[in-house]
Amino acid sequence: MARHIYSCPLRWSDMDAFGHVNNVVFLRYLEEARIDFMFRLAPGEGSESFTGGSVVARHEIDYVRPLVHRHEPVRIESWVTKIGAASLTIAYEIKDPEQVYVRASTVVVPFNLAEGRPRRITAEEKSFLREYLDDDAPQGDRPRGGKTEAVAA
């Protein structure tokens, strides 16, 4: 399974009165990593994949340890744990090589902004997402033939 890697800078304004990154700011970090994954890495020149909009249906966050301000960015690893007909689940770890600060997941629903309603995930999008699909994901979410091997850029 490939993981998308996002290097996220810490900002002084991310800190709260207790001197660590505020819990709400972690949602912004996850959003930055998710947008970088879904839009910047969308497949193909001129592809319409992931450009029509999406909405967050659910977030789950486990705060493992405090993160304090420093000049080095934090690493956010993202991967896909579920691909449905009209939703996908992205998992994350916000970490340094020696420790994890946050483990999280987000359920994302592709959305047709013009029609004001959810839409199905296209074949092109599924193909892209499967490159990042967790090896432990249910078999129905994986292409026939077993595990997918891919290397993140």
Automatic annotation (TrEMBL):
Sorted alphabetically, which Pfam families does this protein's record hold?
4HBT_2 (PF13279)
Q: Name the UniProt key words of this record, in alphabetical order.
A: Hydrolase
Which Enzyme Commission number(s) are on file for it?
A: 3.1.2.-
Which residue intervals make up region (Disordered)? Answer: 132-153
Task: Tell me the domain of life.
Answer: Bacteria
Q: Which GO terms describe its molecular function?
A: fatty acyl-CoA hydrolase activity
Q: Which CDD domains match?
A: 4HBT (cd00586)
Q: What is this protein called?
A: Acyl-CoA thioester hydrolase
Which InterPro entries did the record assign? 4-hydroxybenzoyl-CoA_TE (IPR050563), HotDog_dom_sf (IPR029069)
Taxonomy-wise, where does this protein's organism fall, top ranks first?
Bacteria, Bacillati, Actinomycetota, Actinomycetes, Kitasatosporales
What's the source species for this entry? Streptomyces candidus
